[in-house]
From TrEMBL, chain A:
Protein name (database record): MICOS complex subunit MIC10
Organism whose genome encodes this protein: Oncorhynchus mykiss (Rainbow trout)
Function per UniProt: Component of the MICOS complex, a large protein complex of the mitochondrial inner membrane that plays crucial roles in the maintenance of crista junctions, inner membrane architecture, and formation of contact sites to the outer membrane.
Keyword Repressor tagged: no
TM region positions: 18-36
Keyword Transmembrane helix: yes
TrEMBL record, chain B:
Designated name of the protein: MICOS complex subunit MIC60
Cited function: Component of the MICOS complex, a large protein complex of the mitochondrial inner membrane that plays crucial roles in the maintenance of crista junctions, inner membrane architecture, and formation of contact sites to the outer membrane.
Region (Disordered): 111-145
GO biological process: cristae formation
Protein topology in the membrane: Single-pass membrane protein
Pfam families named in the record: Mitofilin
Any one GO cellular component localisation term in the record: MICOS complex
Predominant location category: mitochondrion
Gene of this entry: immt
Coiled coil start-end: 386-413
Subcellular location: Mitochondrion inner membrane
Length: 79, 744
């Protein structure tokens, strides 16, 4: 069902963003705790990175059908 | 022309003369002379030529009148001269071709006729006599022999005309001789061959009859004559015998010395013998007379037979004549023998008479001397006395003396007597010789005549044989010719008859064929009509059957299509129908021969077969969800597909309000291709049951909306296809059913 694809994609997006955010958060926290003396900027950075990645992934996922791939050969019909 | 020439000559001469310088006058004079002279000379020449031509023509005509050969030559060589001659002289005499053979024939006849005359001389009379007799049979004026010959002549002339090279020399003169005879007669009509043959047959028969009668006559005559002659000869022989016996007995009686009783018996026997002899002589004479009479009769019969002049009778006549001659000869010889015997007997009788006389005298003397002695004095030697003996001896001596004297006298007279006797004898001999000579001559003549006749007969036979061979040859030639002609005729007739037969046969055949053809045609027509009717009936039945079959099939098809329709209706709200495969299979089975149905059945999309199709209601329901989604991604397409655009499109969808359903226009303009409008059009059409239009409209979506509606579109397409096919099938089934129900 093509109409359910978007929903699925969006679900994936959300899931992915949640994961990414969480992972970013986590890593941010980790990095802030570990490396950056509990500054919040690595968390934000991590979150931001996580969000950005999730955004990009979502976008790519949504764009995927419109991408022209290299391995698709275009056959020109000889007139 | 002469004047022109002369003028030319004059001008030339003038020039020449002018050149020379002689004056013109002499030329003019000359010209006048020549002109006048030319006129007169031309006339002369013309007259001369006319005269020559006329003379030539006249001379030719005159000479042609005199000599027909010349006329013929001229007519042959110069065309139209025959007409001129006809005008001047009259028609030409016909060429005398026949004269030549006519001239030839008499010459030959003269040579041959002489021969014939010589040979025919003895027979000429008989020929005429024979010619006389058949006159009695009654043919017209010319003698039948001649007419026969004339017929033969005509016959032979026909053969002559047909074949001119077969006849021998002998036949031609003969035929020619006969032909001259018949030519002399004015009108010898050619009798038809049948009549000729009949006449010939008649004559042959008459001849045969005559011949048989003649031969019978001859035989009878011959027989009787022979019998009589034999009788005569026998009588003569008997007479001879009697005479001989008588003479012998007389001699015996005279010479023998028998006792008186025996002597008397002897004398009696002698008398008997004498009587016998006289009787037999008489008999013989009578027989001879009778025989002579018979012979004369026979001769008369033979002459009569000769008068008839039948060729075949001649040998018998000849034989009869010969027989006659021999009989005559025999008779004569026997008669001469009898006569000699008679003369001998006469001598002997004379001698015996003399002896008897002497004996009687002696006896008388003896009786006068010795009267008691009997006549028989041979056995009387014992009874006689010496006187008697002496007287007897004396008497005997006297007698002896007398005898001696007589003897001497006789001796003297002997010579005279002998001379006279000789002379008498000579005379008699002469007479006898004459008689004998005459008889011998007669006999010889007769024999010669017979021989001549025989020879004549032989030559006649030979001639006849030759003539027969020639005639046979002629006849053979004639038969050959006849055979050829008959063969040709036969062939012609046969070919004619065959032609006629063939033509009649063909006619009959064509008639028969026509009749049979007519019959056949009528029969064929009937048969064709019956067959056509049968065929019609069969076709009607077949068409009925077919129609029923078709009806059945249509019914089946319709049923299966109805089943398909029913399966189509089994769609639950969100589930597709059952797979249509079974129904389609049923359709395929039910209408295996129907190509249209088969095509339609195969035209169903495979998903519908395998999975089934969604119903319109489910699609309609599904559409709304799709509509929402399509609204939300309305802005997304290839160029705009970031997440921000997604947000914007969501925003747009939230903020934009369109009619829920809008009736789609007949033609879509550019601004109608907006997603929202399209979706409202599609909703409207869906609500109004037009899935097709809705699908078309949804097909116009672009970008993400399109991608979102893709599946729905596919399903809609499937459903639409299936529905189309099913509706076609049902329409077809209905049409077929309708057709089948309508058919009878």
């Amino acid at each position: 069902m093509s109409e359910k694809e978007l929903g699925k994609k969006l679900d994936r997006c959300l899931a992915d963003s949640a994961v990414k955010l969480g992972a970013g958060l986590g890593l941010g926290i980790v990095f802030s705790v570990v490396f950056f003396k509990r500054h919040t900027w690595p968390v934000a950075f991590g979150l931001g990175m996580g969000l950005g990645m999730a955004y990009t992934n979502c976008q790519n996922d949504l764009r995927a059908p419109y991408l022209i791939q290299r391995n698709i050969k275009v056959i020109a019909k000889r007139q | 022309m002469l004047r022109v020439c002369l003028k030319g000559a004059n001008s030339a001469a003038r020039k020449c003369l002018c050149g020379n310088g002689v004056p013109l006058h002499p030329l003019q004079q000359c010209r006048s002379y020549t002109s006048g002279g030319s006129g007169s000379s031309a006339g002369k020449i013309v007259a001369a030529s006319v005269l020559t031509v006329g003379g030539g023509v006249g001379g030719t005509i005159l000479y042609a009148n005199w000599d027909p050969k010349f006329r013929a030559n001229v007519e042959k060589s110069i065309p139209y001269s025959d007409q001129v001659f006809g005008l001047a002289l009259g028609p030409a005499a016909p060429p005398p071709v026949i004269n030549k053979p006519r001239k030839v024939e008499p010459v030959q006849i003269s040579s041959m006729s002489e021969m014939w005359k010589d040979s025919k001389q003895p027979k000429a009379k008989e020929v005429e006599k024979k010619a006389e007799q058949p006159d009695a049979e009654g043919p017209p004026a010319p003698a039948p022999q001649e007419t026969l010959e004339g017929e033969a002549c005509v016959f032979v002339a026909m053969i002559l005309s047909a074949e001119q090279n077969v006849l021998s020399v002998f036949c031609i003169p003969l035929a020619a001789a006969k032909c001259t005879e018949c030519e002399h007669e004015p009108a010898v009509k050619e009798r038809p061959e049948g009549e000729v043959a009949a006449r010939l047959a008649e004559q042959d028969k008459a001849e045969q009859d005559l011949l048989t009668s003649l031969s019978s006559n001859l035989e009878d005559a011959l027989g009787s004559t022979a019998k009589v002659t034999l009788q005569a000869i026998g009588a003569q022989e008997a007479a001879l015998q009697a005479i001989a016996q008588h003479t012998r007995q007389l001699r015996e009686a005279m010479e023998a010395e028998a006792p008186p009783d025996k002597k008397s018996t002897q004398w009696r026997v002698l008398e008997d013998a004498l009587s016998e002899r006289s009787r037999s002589v008489d008999e013989a004479g009578a027989a001879v007379l009778k025989a002579k009479a018979e012979l004369d009769k026979l001769r008369g019969v033979i002459d009569g037979a000769k008068h008839l002049k039948i060729a075949a009778a001649r040998p018998s006549i000849l034989a009869a004549e010969e027989n006659l001659h021999s009989m005559v000869v025999d008779l004569d010889s026997v008669v001469t023998r009898v006569q000699t015997a008679q003369s001998e007997a006469k001598i002997v009788s004379q001698y015996s008479e003399l002896v008897n006389e002497a004996k009687a005298q002696f006896q008388k003397e003896l009786n006068s001397i010795t009267p008691e002695i009997q006549a028989n004095w041979k056995g009387l030697t014992g009874k006689l006395t010496q006187d008697d003996l002496n007287s007897l001896i004396a008497h005997a001596h006297r007698r002896i003396d007398q005898m001696n004297r007589e003897l001497a006298e006789q001796r003297v007279r002997e010579q005279i007597h002998i001379d006279s006797a000789l002379e008498q004898q000579k005379l008699e001999d002469k007479k006898a010789l004459e008689v004998a000579v005459s008889t011998a001559l007669e006999h010889n003549r007769e024999q010669m005549r017979l021989e001549q006749e025989k020879k004549v007969e032989e030559t006649r036979e030979v001639m006849e044989a030759e003539m027969r061979t020639q005639l046979r040859r002629q006849a053979a030639a004639h038969t050959d010719h006849l055979r050829d002609v008959l063969k040709v005729q036969e062939q012609e007739l046969r070919s004619e008859a065959e032609e006629i037969l063939n033509s009649s046969l063909m006619e009959k055949e064509t008639e028969y064929r026509r009749l049979t053809q007519d019959q056949l045609d009528s029969f064929t027509l009937d048969m064709n009509a019956a067959y056509a009717r049968l065929k019609g009936m069969e076709e009607a039945i077949d068409s009925h059957v077919i129609a029923e079959e078709e009806a059945r099939k249509a019914h089946q098809l319709w049923l299966s299509v109805e089943a398909l329709n029913y399966t189509l209706k089994t769609a639950a709200l969100n589930d597709p129908t059952e797979p249509l495969e079974g129904a389609v299979q049923a359709i395929k089975e039910s209408c295996a021969e129907d190509e249209f149905a088969q095509a339609l059945a195969t035209a169903l999309p495979s998903e519908s077969l395998s999975r089934g199709v969604y119903s319109e209601a489910s699609l309609r329901a599904r559409f709304y969800a799709i509509r929402q989604l399509a609204r939300r991604v309305a802005l997304i397409d290839e160029t705009r597909n970031s997440l921000y655009q997604y947000f914007l499109s969501y925003l747009q969808a939230m903020l934009l309000f369109e009619k829920a359903q809008e009736a789609p226009p007949a033609k879509l303009s550019a601004e109608d291709l907006d997603t929202f409008k399209l979706l409202s059009y599609a909703a409207y059409s869906l609500e109004h049951g037009d899935l097709e239009l809705a699908a078309k409209l949804v097909n116009q979506l672009k970008g993400e909306s399109r991608r979102v509606a893709q599946d729905w579109l596919k399903e809609a397409r499937l459903t639409l296809e299936t529905k189309q096919v099913v509706s076609l099938l049902s329409a077809y089934a209905n049409a077929v059913g309708l057709g089948t129900t309508m058919a009878p």
